[in-house]
Amino acid sequence: MTRMPTGVEIHGACDPAFARVRRVFENNFAREMETGAAITVHVGDEPVVDLWGGVADERTGRSWDRDTPCFAFSCTKAVTAAAALRVAEQGGHDLTAPVASWWPEFGTAGKERTTGEHLLSHQAGLPVFDRPVSVAEAADPAAMAGLLAAQRPQWEPGTAHGYHTFTYGWLAGEIVRRLDGRTVGDYVAAEIAGPLGLDLWVGSPDEVIDRAARLTTGPGRRSTAPSGTSGASATGPVAALTRATHDPGSLLSRSMAAPDVGAVPGRFNSREVLAAGWPAAGLLTSAGGLAGFYRDLLAGRIVSPDTLRDALVPRATGPDRVMVLDSSFGLGFMRPSLVFAVPRAAWPGAFGHTGSGGSIGLADVDHGIAIGYVMNRTGTELSGGTRAMRLIKAVYDSLG
């Protein structure tokens, strides 16, 4: 245990070879960038970093524990994608086939040739709902899928890509629900998190919500840009992202406006939201649970190595019609790009997913590492964040 100058105690263990990860983690607290946070790193099946500290709930002063679950926003998408890939693999389903072959209602309004791979790689052209959606409505995945099935896409599916902030979950989630019969949350609990012993829930029971970290914005504000983009030209892509963020009519703003979380007291701290299990942004997980998920992906315990290898092949790379900046996606997993910023050594093999505000899950097929970082002081970055990127760099620096 280490006590920082701020009085924050850092708990856990760290292999001496990864001491720089501990220093960066401690420094994030010393610079008052954190309220509560945790990071876990595995090399193969061996945990080399397992650190936590700070306060899980500022209202009560409850401390962050090793197994404190935290809302991880879009880190959920990778879990949903893994569930869809597992269902397709085990059932022998072809994700290059038209969605309408297993979801007949979807094959209308210009979506007839949309494939399962399009759903998993943000190419479906359905990043926004055509009408307002309440938090109560969003608890019904069949209803959400029905709304999207009736819509006309923003672009011809497969010809472009754009980040599907919330709609991704109800599109990719239908692969699970239609082909297996269970919701993403039920499937993950029964087939992935439960058997593998992972502290990870898509739709959480009361006892998990009761001990979850409470999100806070903390003092000050940070940039809406992804990490690593500060200082960019006022006329460049980051400026375009800023304009899109503040334009209520942009695809980016519209993609974040439904479901209307702002109408619910507590927003993402709301029990109603945490229990709903939105398959694009409904994950409660500990750092150990998130790192363990990626460890088990690499080890072939969730899908076969061949399925994972194929899923990591970029299906959509370049200008993102929603986030404006260049992005890159395999089947559900982010690949290195401006919105998934990783050290140069990580570019060939790294994959994973960020969560709005700063959380991240990452694995590297070349280096055999798995990382989970969660925190309750959310920044305003749409993808990644300075704290996470400094930690990831420290991990790679420790590998030599």
Automatic annotation (TrEMBL):
Gene Ontology MF terms: hydrolase activity
Q: Which residue windows does the record flag with biased composition (Low complexity)?
A: 223-237
Domain named Beta-lactamase-related is located at: 25-391
Q: Where is this region: Disordered?
A: 215-237
- Whether Hydrolase counts among this entry's keywords is yes
What keywords is this UniProt entry annotated with? Hydrolase
Hydrolase in keyword set: yes
The protein's name is Serine hydrolase domain-containing protein
